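User: Okay, second chain of the day. Same drill as before: sequence in, structure tokens out.
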Amino acid sequence: MSAKQEQRAPKHWVTILLGIMVAVVFIITIISFQVKNTEYAVITTLGKISGTADSGLNFRWPYPIQSIYKFDKRIRCFEGKGGKIEETLTKDGQNVLIGIYIAYKIVDPVLFYTTWMTIPRAEESLSDWMRSEKSLVIGKYRFDQLINTDANKMKLSEIEKMICDELNLKTRSQYGVEVVSVGINNIGIPANTTSSVFNRMIAERQTISSQYRAEGESRAKDIRSKADAEKTKILTDAEAEAKTIRADGDAMAAKYYSEFNKNPQLAAFLRKLDSMKKIMGQKTTLILDTDSAPFDILKAGAEKIDNGSKK
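Assistant: Same drill. Structure tokens below.
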């Protein structure tokens, strides 16, 4: 072997090794596949389902012998395709605009693949079912259970749960999909029925206010009646007590009057003195004839004083 041939030999070996490595990687790629923790993998052999694969690295027969179909196992939020917000008739014949969404996840990948194969096909069917179940459930409730100022009369949570249950009856056992929750994201009133609805709501509020006013007037009458009865009782008791006091006073006065009968002059003097006290207050100046009662007692007192001094 010549020197040139000996120098080329290592280069040929390097090329061969690189080719072998590329071939091995290519073969591994063909006969293996990776499954994420958030995915399901369904394996088909010659077009028929032959099993599922766990997360991680898995091996398979090369295509077209075996094919791998992956589905996301996480919860997906879906609002429906056409007609997200549509007019729906309530139990009492009112039109409302309702839009809903669902949160769903794949729980049986084999059943899901058998019935739908792809998520777009699944969501197309789900959109139709959402629309029909929404109409059926809303039709069981009155308008005031959807739109009301009183939160206690609202039934939105109950409606959402009922739609969710009805959808699960179809999807879980037959299609491998679980509807986790249903929510109402839009609710409104069509323009052509807004005025009539508002008028009806105003009439309802007026009826309620009339009931409150009637109850208030009834309670006011009861309060006034009780107050009048209490007033009459108090006045009656006070009048009876006053009569008793007057009777006691008259009895006491009779004793004093009997004493006055014994000495009429003393009684007249005391009466005049009492009149003087009432007529003449503090800082009062009077110029009167002392011959007039009750000031004649001043004259009589002065005469008594003069007579006493003369004696």
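The chain has a mean pLDDT of 78.

User: Thanks, on to the next one.
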